[in-house]
Design a protein that fits this description.
Elements (H helix, E strand, L loop, with lengths): L1 E6 L6 H14 L4 E5 L11 H6 L5 E4 L4 E4 L5 H5 L7 E5 L9 E4 L3 H7 L4 E5 L9 E2 L2 E2 L7 H11 L15 H10 L8 H4 L6 E3 L2 E3 L3 H16 L17
Helix pairs in contact: 1-5
């Protein structure tokens, strides 16, 4: 999955820019997922779904206009994992996100400077109606006039790091993401994404990075323990789930 965040302040053109790019990528045959960060309360206090959420882990809502799946994600990884089968994940908002590149939507240059944390790949939104070609070193692309160029850029530049800060590559995910945006590193430099782990440990759905020697230790310990049990047969995959 590749991802990019459309970030900006209110009325900066985030929704318009994202929608235009989503339509263009969809036209190119990609499966598209969209995640939106809202400041409003979606499941208002006192509603039926709010009451159900107090006792259930997940609530499925069937409505006339749309369907909804309500749950409380423990972290951003858990939230984004709800869409594992898309080619591109487009995020609206999420200004604080630090492991994906960003299209900065702005009304004026000062907003671009404030929002660019080293992960910007382009400037769009209201400010793109002006005649500037570059702002803060980033190409300015009007998502309505230049949607093909913006989609081309996103095809080349979109990515998503694991956001677990394992530092197995020598950096946390934020600094690795900045290096990828600069062109000094690639996703191939992310150890977690490129290692074929023999042992995978997940805690509440989040992968716990294991160095090679730890994987070998866990593998031999588990296999040695199971081999002494009646009925155990050597298999290609062993699953152990521990619930509290």
């Amino acid at each position: 999955m590749r991802a990019v965040a459309f970030v900006g302040f209110k009325k900066s053109g985030k929704t318009t820019s994202l929608e235009a790019v989503a339509r263009e990528l969809k036209k190119r045959g990609y499966r598209i997922g969209i995640a939106k960060s809202m400041h409003a309360t979606f499941d208002r206090e006192g509603s039926d779904t709010w009451r159900f959420s107090g006792v259930a882990d997940y609530v499925l809502v069937k409505a006339e206009d749309t369907d909804a799946f309500l749950f409380k994600a423990k972290d951003l990884n858990a939230l984004l994992s709800m869409m594992p089968d898309v080619d591109f994940l487009l995020l609206e908002g999420f200004k604080s996100i630090k492991h994906v590149p960003k299209v900065i939507c702005a009304r004026e240059e000062s907003e671009v400077k404030e929002l660019n944390d080293g992960l910007g790949i382009a400037v769009s939104g209201v400010i793109a109606n002006d005649e500037s070609d570059r702002i803060e070193g980033l190409p300015v692309m009007n998502a309505l006039r230049d949607v093909e160029k913006l989609a081309d850029l996103i095809e080349r530049k979109a990515f998503m790091l694991p956001n677990i800060d394992c530092r197995m590559c020598g950096f946390d995910c934020y600094n690795m993401a900045k290096l990828i945006v600069k062109g000094e590193k690639t996703l191939k430099d992310c150890v977690v994404l490129n290692q074929r782990a023999k042992v995978i440990v997940k805690v509440d759905g989040k992968i716990l990075p294991l160095k090679d020697w730890v994987q070998e230790l866990v593998e031999k310990t588990v296999k040695g323990m199971l081999s002494a049990m009646k009925g155990y047969k050597e298999g290609r995959k062993i699953e152990i789930i521990i619930r509290e």
